UniProtKB/TrEMBL annotation:
Regions crossing the membrane: none
Protein's name according to its UniProt entry: Putative ATPase
Record Pfam families: AAA_28
Gene3D superfamilies listed in its UniProt record: P-loop containing nucleotide triphosphate hydrolases (3.40.50.300)
NadR/Ttd14 AAA domain sequence ranges: 3-167
Signal peptide: none
Source species, domain of life: Bacteria
Amino acid sequence: MRRFILTGTPGAGKTTLLHALAARGHSVIEEAATDVIAEGQAAGVDEPWAEPGFVERVVTVQRERQLGAGTAAVQLFDRSPVCTYTLAEYLGLPVAPALRAELERIATQRVYQPTVFFVRNLGFCEPTPARRISFADSLEFERVHRRSYREFGFALLDVPAAPLAERVALVEAALAEDGA
């Protein structure tokens, strides 16, 4: 089984790209943090990311999704625990023991392919209820994100700002080249 991560700055179009890949028959696993935020907001918490236990909840959902992703030979994940580590660092939160354990697990078990699709920003960041970040701040988050993946030993394959069809073609070409 080959598990690939798609990541990048908030608002870069990762989810749109993944939905397009799913429409073309690829196995896609949705992002956990967005769903954890939506659950919190539905429960009346305006900023769930500021609540104690947020990082642990994201890590738990990520692990559950990864372990329950099925048996497709190739799987594409919208973010990973490295993203959660980056978010914790960016928000100034401590790296929770559950996150440390999950980072160790994915490293020792080589859960994900060593090359990560890094979806580059589109030149803007559109706010949503779950994404309240300025474009300037998203660029800083992108920088921290790239550094984190490299520190954890991943190689980054840039998916530049481009029309969706070009991004899909780039990812599919890289998957084919990788034998996936």
